[in-house]
Specification:
Structural class: alpha+beta
Shape: globular
Order of helices and strands: HEHEHEEEEEHHEE
Largest sheet: 7 strands, mixed
Number of helices: 5
């Protein structure tokens, strides 16, 4: 009968133990890769080269509403909240925002002291929302609301504000024309329609979609983004503990 060296048996056992030890590590690495691959930032409004998110897709409405309310409460709680949402929205999503932001008022053309949601970014359990607000110096500035989400990427809560000392342009009403007509009157809606037609690039037409918007403010295709839509502003931020320009 053939004999097997005890040294060879010991070597085989050592190899098996080494393989067993490395297996969980490899599985963990694979899981990290999968998680990392699923957490690419999603933006609203959509940005070329980045994955977007629809206005009515959770958790976006909760993120934007919580961020906007928090920024207003921290900066100008004694003033009415007049909001201006991105134009990339349909009427169904608009109703959700309108309900959750009540009793705040949607912007009508010509309104002042308006809070404009410029962009939201969701990246796993973290999110940021850029809001342009009226400062106490008489011009508009941007604040980024940083948020943390619960397990599963829901119930995002504001963590801190990041202020940007950069003046931006006065807000332009981005609401759907149907919303403007309902809240601001037919004359305001018609004037805004004419303004948007004049701003269209050659060959573009206003969308006639009955249930919402095909592009910004009812435009199809989308026009060039305004100059004040940087994501986020390229400047040194003021620390969250510093008094903002309200």
């Amino acid at each position: 009968m053939a004999t097997i060296s005890t040294d060879r048996i010991s070597t085989a056992h050592d190899g098996l133990r080494a393989f067993t030890r490395t297996l969980p590590i490899g599985m963990a690495a694979a899981s990290v890769m999968l998680v990392s691959g699923c957490s690419a930032p999603r933006t609203w409004p959509s940005v070329s080269g980045s994955p977007g998110i629809s206005a009515d897709t959770p958790p976006l409405p909760q993120v934007v509403v919580s961020a906007l309310k928090y920024a207003h409460q921290e900066i100008a709680k004694d003033t009415p909240l007049v909001y201006n949402l991105p134009a990339e929205i349909n009427l169904g999503a608009w109703k959700t925002f309108e309900r959750d932001l009540a009793p705040a008022k949607a912007m009508c053309p010509g309104d002042t002291h308006v809070w404009t949601v410029r962009q939201a970014r969701i990246d796993g359990s973290k999110a940021q929302v850029d809001v342009e607000y009226p400062s106490r110096d008489g011009f508009y500035q941007t604040v980024t609301v940083h948020m943390q989400g619960a397990t599963g990427g829901f119930d995002y809560k504001p963590a801190f504000l990041q202020y940007w000392k950069i003046p931006v342009k006065d807000p332009v009403c981005q609401q759907p024309l149907a919303v403007v007509e309902r809240l601001c009157g037919a004359a305001a809606a018609e004037a805004l329609r004419a303004q948007r037609v004049a701003a269209l690039p050659p060959g573009a037409v206003l969308s006639t979609a009955p249930d919402g918007i095909s592009g910004p403010g009812g435009m199809n295709p989308q026009p060039v983004a305004p100059a004040n839509s940087a994501v986020p502003p390229k400047a040194v931020p003021v620390g969250a503990t510093e008094e903002p320009s309200k």
